[in-house]
């Protein structure tokens, strides 16, 4: 299985009037435009995604919708609370394992520091790795047997700038 981990695009700043609820902060127009370029770069690097799982937070859903549109797979997008910012990596790992056998190429759209923690657990077995996802950053992990602990290989980690240039 290939796991792609994507941090949501640039969103409205936290705490602005009208956006007090963190889960309801939308992407900015600039963030949405940049995400379209990132998604076009991503499809050039890896043209196959079978399913998108996204955090239920608005900015992540909007990011996932942009990627789904570029990949032409609007109906293969599911929201999950297991990818929200305060969850533990174990929750999303359990959810994916419960789907198996499932998609071979799964995109997870979420938040920091959650994505860094999940990546670290899958690569090192704990949350000790210093990995930071910029907004719109993506990594690809290959996994033989998904479990909580060291089970993945890092295929690549791409910055939003690099993917935008490819798009």
Q: Can you offer a commentary on this structure?
A:
With 167 residues, this protein is an alpha/beta fold. Helix content is 36%, strand content 20%. Strands 3-2-4-1-5-6 form a 6-stranded mixed β-sheet, sandwiched between helices. Strand 5 (138-143) and strand 6 form a beta hairpin. Helix 1 (29-45) packs across helix 2 (58-71). The two termini are 25 Å apart.
Features:
167 residues, 6-stranded mixed sheet, Rossmann fold, 5 helices, alpha/beta, 20% strand
> What is the second-level CATH architecture?
3-Layer(aba) Sandwich
Strand order of the largest sheet: 3-2-4-1-5-6
End-to-end gap: 25 Å
CATH topology: Rossmann fold
Assembly type of the chains comes to single chain
Structural class by secondary-structure content: alpha/beta
CATH superfamily: Phosphoglycerate mutase-like
Q: Which range does the strand content fall in?
A: 15-25%
Low-confidence stretches: none
Q: CATH top level?
A: Alpha Beta
Question: Brief description of this entry?
Answer:
With about 170 residues, the chain is of the alpha/beta class. About 35% of the residues lie in helices and about 20% in strands.
